[in-house]
Amino acid sequence: DAGVIQSPRHEVTEMGQEVTLRCKPISGHDYLFWYRQTMMRGLELLIYFNNNVPIDDSGMPEDRFSAKMPNASFSTLKIQPSEPRDSAVYFCASGRGTYGYTFGSGTRLTVV
Amino acid sequence: GDSVTQMEGPVTLSEEAFLTINCTYTATGYPSLFWYVQYPGEGLQLLLKATKADDKGSNKGFEATYRKETTSFHLEKGSVQVSDSAVYFCALINPADYKLSFGAGTTVTVRA
Q1: Hey, is the C-beta of B102 within 8 angstroms of any chain A C-beta?
Q2: Could you say which DSSP state residue A51 is in?
Q3: How many CB pairs under 8 A join A and B?
């Protein structure tokens, strides 16, 4: 079991550029979550999916953010255009409901 | 909505001291409860969990008991080590929607 795999681990981009973060959940897990972590705001839930369907995207900060899950083994979080305030660590997590969720190692995004 | 409240940090202890981090929750229905740990520069790891009243979760010397009457899930360790320095998050999953809700996190520093 390779765990939840996120890529890239680090991303530095210029303001205005498009950024795509990727996540491969653990096989067999039917829930997938995207979180953002900053010193100021802590952990924020952005969106989560069940069986590839978005269930709650109320945490997505604005229209610049979008997330997709085209199949059970892949999800993306896209920011277009990126802004310096989007700098954060973005985590993906997957699981099967009340058993708990496994987190990836995160993507550290820096927008300059 | 669901919420998790945990004691504010930071908490600084000496090695071999007793650690308690208080956590209370508000949820509709009957949630499952979790403690996650985040070591510096890493993602969140599931530390322990409990799925019903009076269940005790335990791992790596840490324990927490699901107290439905007081809606609490306090984390304890009898003798901490420097390697326990981390941020600890209390969390719940509501079986109505399987959303994972976190507390704000408590930073623990153990000094030799």
Answers
A1: yes
A2: T
A3: 49
